[in-house]
Design a protein that fits this description.
The chain is an alpha/beta fold and 317 residues long. 30% of the residues lie in helices and 23% in strands. The chain has 10 helices and 14 strands. The strands form 2 sheets. Strands 9-8-7-10-11-14-12-13 form an 8-stranded parallel beta sheet. The longest helix has 19 residues.
């Protein structure tokens, strides 16, 4: 068993294009995997531990479980670690720092949702919430946007918008950044709205008429757009189980998984006037596939680890 640290993963130089390709692969072979529901426990306050298991397809032969935890006072408060197994032998292959994996696969799924459900012509993309998830999404969006010229609007919050613009200054040849002061300015006439906020106490905007015909909203952490659930033409998700507990689940006008669209089993966007929501809560499938691929890329390296040996005869007390 080897230990794979964050710095070893970053040294691999995994491109945003590869990240988008990996999540697309996952949605394609999703019917072949076993994906039990996430399990969460809450030791105190809003702290939690969440286990995300997944058995990958037989030809891959790997099982992974990622544990995400939030502990108040820890820096960072959110952490994730994975254990990767050989599903044929039961051998533990690796323990993997999964912070980078979680961030990049989340951004890649958001970018893939934009690529899959955006209207034909996209002129304006609006971001609210400008942390690591938004940065990962912006990196992966480059693969979606190609050479198209777009305006990217950012809602001012502290100095995050300015830092975001500075971080992506190398994209200024095809992206014009605009920093706005209000949600009204942010949402009006936007073709795509990507929300990466992790907490909100209410709706992003009470009047759904501000969201123009053809808009695509990708609420990465699902919060703040519940009034759109019953007003929008179509809702897509990464997994039905993630949205079945939503307040307006039974009032969705149309619901399908993004994987069903990518596999050609169900229709995606049918016209440039449809208003669409895409909820991607996060699948242990993506973590498992990333971990498996990263393990294969690093298994020949001289990484720290140890040999875990169990008794080979029948175990008796």
């Amino acid at each position: 068993m080897i230990f794979i640290k964050d710095e070893e993963i970053r040294k691999l130089g995994i491109t945003p294009k590869q990240c988008v390709s990996w999540v697309k692969d996952c949605f394609t072979f999703k019917p072949e995997i076993q994906l039990p529901a996430k399990i969460s426990v809450h030791p105190q306050g809003i702290d939690f531990f969440t286990a995300m298991p997944c058995l990958l397809p037989k030809e891959i032969g790997r099982y992974n479980v990622k544990v995400v935890s939030r502990i108040a006072g820890r820096t960072p408060s959110l952490k994730s670690d994975s254990m990767l197994f050989d599903s044929k032998t039961g051998k533990v292959l690796a323990i993997i720092d999964s912070d980078y994996i979680t961030t990049m696969r989340t951004g890649a799924v958001a970018a893939l949702a934009v690529k899959t459900f955006k209207r034909t012509e996209v002129k304006t993309i609006s971001f609210i919430g400008l942390g690591n998830t938004a940065r990962a999404t912006m990196l992966c969006l480059q693969e979606v946007l190609g050479d198209n010229q777009v305006v990217v609007r950012l809602l001012r919050y502290k100095n995050q918008a300015e830092l975001f613009v500075e971080h992506f200054k190398d994209l200024s040849d095809k992206i014009t950044f605009q920093i706005v002061e209000t949600k009204k300015e942010l949402f009006e006439d936007a073709d795509v709205i990507i929300s990466c906020i992790t907490e909100t106490t209410g709706l992003m905007y009470d009047d759904v008429s501000i969201f123009k015909p053809g808009v695509l909203i990708v609420p990465v952490h699902t919060r703040g757009f519940q009034n759109c659930d019953i007003a929008f033409d179509k809702v897509f998700c990464d997994d039905y189980s993630h949205v079945k507990g939503f307040k307006y689940f039974n009032q969705f006008k149309s619901l399908a998984e993004i994987g069903e669209v990518l596999r050609g089993e169900k229709a995606g966007r049918s016209s440039d006037d449809e208003r669409i929501l895409c909820y991607n809560v996060g699948l242990g499938l993506h973590d498992a596939y990333y971990c498996s691929n990263i393990y294969d890329m690093l298994k020949g390296e001289d990484l720290p680890g140890f040999l875990m040996e169990h008794k080979k005869d029948k175990y008796l007390i």
